[in-house]
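Researcher: We're teaching a course module on how sequence relates to structure. For the next exercise, students receive a sequence and then see the predicted structure as tokens, so they can try to spot secondary structure elements on their own. Here is the exercise chain.
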Amino acid sequence: MKLLMISGDRSILSGQQGAFWYTLQEMRKHWDRIDIICPRISKSGKLKTESGKSQAHDIPNNVFFHPCSWGLLRQSLWIEEKGKRLIAEHHHDVMTVHEYPPFYNGRGALALHKKTGIPFALEIHHIVGWPVTSGITEWVGRELSRWVLPSEARRARKVRTVSTAIEEELKHWGIPSEKLSIIPSFYLDHDLIGRTVAPPKSYDIAFCARLVPNKGLMNVIRSLEYLPNARLLVIGDGPMRAEADKLIHAMKIQNHVTFLGWLPTLEAVLDGILAARTFVMASTSEGGPRSALEAMACGMPVIATRVGVMPEVIEDGENGLFTDGSPKDIAAKVEILLKDAKKREHMGKAARKILDRFERGKLVEKYAEFLKGIAKKR
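Model: And here is the predicted structure for the students to work with:
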């Protein structure tokens, strides 16, 4: 069977061996061919062509990327036009669409569905600005989502969500429960995580995320005001990096914060996370997040806000701690763990059990069977 995937993720083509790369390593086993239509990449990005002459991080030989030739304003048209040509040539059985504001994936997929009749699944991994917005942009995205997503869901054969919380909110928005399926996308590699060896602890707090407003980095930095001797490691990059640097200089804590930027592989990310005594996730809205689950799987004591899948996996005080995300509360929870090595060890051991719940092979197989079920009803 053949799968057409509409995605906004072009990290592989930009040279990153991240979560999407690991997902495709498993997905390829369940499909004869996977074509991925995604946005335009930079000139320095690497692209795997049909001939296989140019590859980015060993993309499987049955997976092909088709980045847009134009800008994002014409992404929907690219999905429609490129998708028609691909379906005519390869006769795909099903299409899956990762949707989020500004909804160009969904608009293009709906037009493609109308022209070709290909059945599709709508995938909603994260509701922007829900449950808490981090600014006016997210508020607008959330309110538009409340109208756009149910409208698109009516045309989809099925809607994939990744947590109970997101499913319940989408039901509240009017998407019928019979259309919704919970299939987590937090794929944890048992073999990779199992062989990861923790380096010496050089930091007190690890933070790993794209540096955008909803991730809560600024509050994590501000928490150091209450933890004068603590050291923070930040993994990731994004538009808030400059603002974070200004705050650090204003607080005069340059010697207490280290930025690693984007790391090329998951192994490198895990090594960085494990160099700290605690892991903090302070997001105001999330789908997962995967980074917190990876930290738990590695045996890290995690401090997290009650967003995404966290309320479903953390038992407060047993395998993690919840925070309200404010600087003072983050500091208080970090201090609890820094003062009690036995508690950190106990919490880390309990957290590792998450690895079996989100084991990559089993979840990707479930995801593939979900999509194949849609194709068989065509």
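Model: If you want an answer key for the exercise: The first helix runs from residue 19 to 27. The radius of gyration is 21 Å.
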